[in-house]
Amino acid sequence: xxxxxxxxxxxxxxxxxxxxxxxxxxxxxxxxxxxxxxxxxxxxxxxxxxxxxxxxxxxxxxxxxxxxxxxxxxxxxxxxxxxxxxxxxxxxxxxxxxxxxxxxxxxxxxxxxxxxxxxxxxxxxxxx
Length: 128
Prior knowledge:
By secondary structure, this protein is of the alpha/beta class. It has helices spanning 7-14, 28-33, 47-50, 69-79, 94-97, and strands spanning 3-5, 21-24, 40-41, 59-63, 87-91.
């Protein structure tokens, strides 16, 4: 692992041509409630079996709810031989510190006929 990266810098990088690969290590259910646009979900428990998926990447940012577990995920990815040349970072503060937009999966049950979100989307559940 190279270091931690501030959420604002991640957001800035995502707008550029050389956007990092953002790996969200939460469960699929929490990922679907809200995630950084363009990120991919690789639950922490699956990471050891999927670390080879990151071979050849230039820059990888790991994300979790509070920025603790993503440090461990970044270390795991960074220790893989196929990512030896990659810059691997954990997003400092996790999604709790993220101020940018979030994407959410929308099931047919949660959307109205016009595709707009319904009251089923509202409530106290945080995206993490």
